Amino acid sequence: MTVNRAMPRGRARAGLLAAALFAAAPPAAAVLTIEVTRGVEAAIAIAVVPFQLQGVSAATANLPAAIIEADLSGSGKFAPLPRGDFLSRPHQARAVQFKDWRLIQAEALVVGRVMRTGDDQFEVRFQLLDVFRETVLAGKKFVVPGGRLRKVAHQISDAIFEALTGTPGAFDTRIAFVTVHGAAPRQRYLLRVADADGHGAQTILESRQPILSPAWSPDGGKLAYVSFEKKRSMIYIQQLRSGERERVAGHHGINGAPAWSPDGNRLALTLSKDGNPDIYIYDLADRSLRRLTRNLAIDTEPAWSPDGGTIAFTSGRRGTPQIYRVAAAGGAAQAVTHPKIHGKYNANANYSHDGKSIALVTNQGNGYQVALYSAQDRSVTALTETDHDESPTFAPNGEMIMYATHSGGAQVLAAVSTDGRVKQIIRLQNENGAVREPAWSPFNRAR
Fold first, then answer.
1. DSSP state of 85
2. What is the helix (H) or strand (E) element at residue 74, kind and residue range?
3. pLDDT digits (tens, 9 = 90+) for 95-130
4. CA 149, CA 158: separation in Å to the nearest integer?
5. Any alpha helices (H) in 241-344, and if so which ranges?
6. What's the CA gap between 128 and 137, in Å, rounded?
7. Which residue from 199, 191, 197, 188 is spatially nearest to 245, judged by alpha carbons?
8. pLDDT tens by residue, 255-284
9. Segment holding 223, helix H or strand E
């Protein structure tokens, strides 16, 4: 039995055997909100004081503090205190009366200022304070144009997150996703890129035909994706700054599921040019192509391990879709998941950044849910309770997994922490279509 019989439509990230799925589902409206449907019980109580205004409008001065507050709240690990409870509003550490903040049970305090230093030039300062130890935990000065104030706010959120949790924050990152607008047969597909909080969305490609499987290059400057714009699947790489793109695979049959190697020099692909869908490696320097798997079942959805030595993929060679792995240099494939142990369906593998776990979509009898495979004990643990989850993608700090799902009749993005304790529904700004195929950018992205 091959994967195309066992896999529900649209769940093979090659996406090519069931592209009609995208025409079948009605679009759904979405607005900008991040709903924390579950957070950690012991969230850190933090007070974010509106930044001091010096030569700028009140709206500009409030911008960093509002974004920082939203970032931290959306992570589920922080509980920002209401500003109406503040007994004072200092803007630097030396002006802080720590007893004021202990009275309202704040554990951490953020203060700062925004000052105009020239035409469209701003200086932003912040300090993070431990209320009980009465110490400064972090602080920094930024000098940026007005258009980068939002980016600076996310960078401050990252610094705060790391100082208080020990893990780098991922607020100053981006996401790629596909939206579908309108109904068949006149629907439109948009490949979009936005900040991780949904702001600043830009259209990378618009087409009347499906767009699938966006994948970030390791430097964050390019996207690889599948487009059906010429009425059949082809794989492109597009430069985000210039918009220039090149076709890297347009063979007869399936061209799908591009995945970048960690060094950015190769792509793993699903191709059927030799008769059956298998995994191939495409060298971007010399344009050579090497076949990695040979099996009568469908092999698809390749994912590189962080060290570049292994590729995980989905195959139906045991009768149902399961995760396998093979050395990137070639060799025999080994099963990672087993239907008798891990359930009848395990697909969409995505390695964590330390290589110790794999995010995937599982069906253990309760629908299609995001799960985590542990390399240590070889277990598969479902992290969600929904039943239409797809396309899991790790945040670059490994803390969260973003995925596509259904909520309130809409097709939206959601996120879950790797321990399952924090869950979010993400409704993106000005997106009035179904939202699918998320891909979270790396840290070191080009802008």
1. G
2. helix 58-74
3. 999 999 999 999 999 999 999 999 989 999 999 999
4. 14
5. 339-342
6. 5
7. 191
8. 999 999 999 999 999 999 999 999 999 999
9. strand 222-227
Distance CA 246, CA 94 (A): 55
Distance set, CA 351 to CA 115, 307, 312, 410 (Å): 43, 11, 8, 28
> What is the torsional sign of CA 13, 14, 18, 23?
positive
Q: How far is CA 434 from CA 13, 157, 403, 431, in A?
A: 17, 29, 13, 8
> CA nearest 332: which of 299, 283, 357?
299
Measuring CA to CA, which residue among 244, 239, 229, 297 is closest to residue 264? Answer: 239
d(CA 170, CA 44): 18
- Say whether pTM exceeds 0.85: yes
Helices 149-165 and 58-74, axial angle in degrees (round to 10): 40
Kindly state the tokens that stand for 142.
């930024």
Two structure tokens written together for 215: 């994948």
Alpha helices in 305-368 (DSSP H): 339-342
419-435 pLDDT, tens digit per residue, is: 888 888 877 655 678 99
Can you read off the two tokens belonging to residue 56?
A: 């700028």
> Do strands 357-363 and 345-351 pair parallel, antiparallel, or not at all (unpaired)?
antiparallel
Tell me whether strands 255-260 and 33-38 are parallel, antiparallel or unpaired: unpaired
Whether the CA torsion 216, 217, 223, 224 is positive or negative: it is negative
Q: Is the Cα torsion angle 400, 211, 13, 27 positive or negative in sign?
A: positive
Q: What is the number of residues in the chain?
A: 447
